[in-house]
Amino acid sequence: MKFRAAWALAAVLPVLSGCHTLREMTSESCHKPRPYMAARSVPPLTIPTGLSSPNTRDALVVPPLKGPVLPPPTAKEPCLDAPPSYIAARPKPAPKA
Length: 97
Prior knowledge:
This protein is an all-alpha fold. 23% of the residues lie in helices and 0% in strands. It is built from two helices and no strands. The protein has helices spanning 2-17, 19-24.
């Protein structure tokens, strides 16, 4: 009997331990401030005299934002990265006449 309980516990523990990561992936996660939101731009690299500058020809350039900045989603709005629900609401049956 103890052997079966040990196997059942071994099968259930990985499932239960994944619940914490599932809670983090809910739609509420985009409404919390994140560390990357405080990131700021830095000035370009300055090369000391006597040293050669790095090849920046193939460097990636982030274009400036052209247009209005969208407001952050409210607590009732879904996150942009949250997938839509796959379960559609069932239509109500027609009233019987």
